[in-house]
Amino acid sequence: MAIGARLAGVDRIIAHVGNYPNTGARNAFRKFRFLVQLGRPFTDTLVCCSNYVRSGAVRHFGVNASETAVIYNGLPVAFDHVARKPSRCTDETPFVIGMVARLEGHKDQPTLVRAARILKTRGRNIRVWLIGDGSRRAEFESLIEAENLAGTVFLLGMRKDIPDLLAQMHLFAFSTTKDEGLGIALIEAMASALPVVASDVGACREVLDNGRLGILVAPADPLALANAIDAIIADATFAAARAQLAQAKVAQAFSMREMARRYSDLLGLPMPQPSKHTAIPDYAA
Q1: 1-34, pLDDT tens digit by residue?
Q2: Using CA atoms, how far apart are residues 110 and 62, in angstroms rounded to an integer?
Q3: Which residues in 54-71 are b (16+ Cβ under 10 Å) and which e?
Q4: Each residue of 271-283: pLDDT tens digit?
Q5: Is the confidence at residue 91, as pLDDT, over 70?
Q6: What is the helix, strand, coil percentage profile of the chain, to 5?
Q7: CATH class assigned to 95-252
Q8: What is the C-alpha to C-alpha distance for residues 271 and 254, in angstroms, rounded to an integer?
Q9: How far is Cα 39 from Cα 45, in angstroms, rounded to an integer?
Q10: Are 46 and 63 in contact (CB under 8 A)?
Q11: Most Cβ neighbours (<10 Å): which of 27, 79, 177, 275?
């Protein structure tokens, strides 16, 4: 495509890199690396969705850092307009833990399911919502049944009311793998001022400022994840304060307007000003 665009007279050509290079899939990785090198003379910039992905592109694709740029994905809708639930739960009101992600191999919902079993064993009144769909749904259904969590963990499938669902949660758990490129669902939860626990992998570490904005736990460690969730249940005030800092980070770094500004700077274009008829979400202003 880059070659065709250059032959057609396009002045500036950029390519987007949205995931850390999957070196484990050897044949697919070698093919993708070849395509990157093939298009390299015709591509001005590889735009990476995070510094973590940029480091992977430089390391594994054999490109120079000067050929890359980092532009975070911006949120397309507002997630801070729905009133939040109280951060504390009671014996009658379960503590709702949610995760929004595809049910695929580059995510790690099974660790969250096993953490839920630990919390249930401790007598915690919790509900876990796994929102999203994918090829591993049947596998997860079997895991939930095997862990005796049918009344605790729920597969909600694909949903279009994510902001409203986030507003009903007490905590967002983002159990994922090193293949995570950025984690837009994680950023959506932060925009909702929702306390966050996430896997300590490159993308989550970057988004959460090395744990300043949410708790980072060892990947694929159900006990560590359960303990982190328990810590938030025990100290809701501190968790809420950190969630407010996370929401401010979204306004600064992950708004649609900030993404547009960065692309305008990269392309040398004037930043378009919103008209009086354009509504800008508060967090994106």
Answers
A1: 777 888 888 889 999 999 999 998 899 999 999 9
A2: 34
A3: bbbbbebbebeeeebbbb
A4: 766 655 444 333 3
A5: no
A6: 45, 15, 40
A7: alpha beta
A8: 17
A9: 11
A10: yes
A11: 79
